[in-house]
Amino acid sequence: MALCDFLISADIAGFDCENPMVKGAEPMGLLINRKDIDTLTISGFNITAMTLKCGGKVATKVYQAGKQPFSGTQQEMAEGTYTNTITNTVQFVVMEHSSDTAPDLFSLANGEFVAIIPDKMGNYQVYGAEAGLHCSAQVRELYNDDTLAGWLVTMTEENASYGNLFTTKAIFDSLQVATSAC
Known about the structure:
This protein is mainly beta and 182 residues long. The protein has helices spanning 102-110, 169-174; strands spanning 28-33, 37-43, 46-52, 60-63, 74-78, 85-94, 113-118, 124-127, 134-140, 151-160, 165-167.
């Protein structure tokens, strides 16, 4: 068994004057049924390959209008006895409530997912690739001005060892195209 060295490798300045952080997410992300993923290759903190199984599988678009899309999406370190992990949380609103959306809400409540959310800086952050995103809450409030009586869905991935996984725009774009029958 090898011993891991946890060493920093660059200056931690706290602020990059030439490339300041920009908070927030883009309004369109992807939600993928974890069982539909055929290959997933992680190199360091990057997902370098992700393909879906054959037979028309495709990532589902999740669109969030407004000035704060995916508000509530966050990452938090969870202290463990022997190692620390990351808890990833992704939030979005289903802005429809009907018998047509009921099956999808049921699937969201009981399934396992991976989400890719682009941020305002051009990064494509991946949540759920390690331990899967599971629904931890669905709340519908009839008089909520923010959700317009839609469902606020909270998905959580616990015990992610890396937690900060990223992918490319090319992989993001490729997941939106249905795979051919094999």
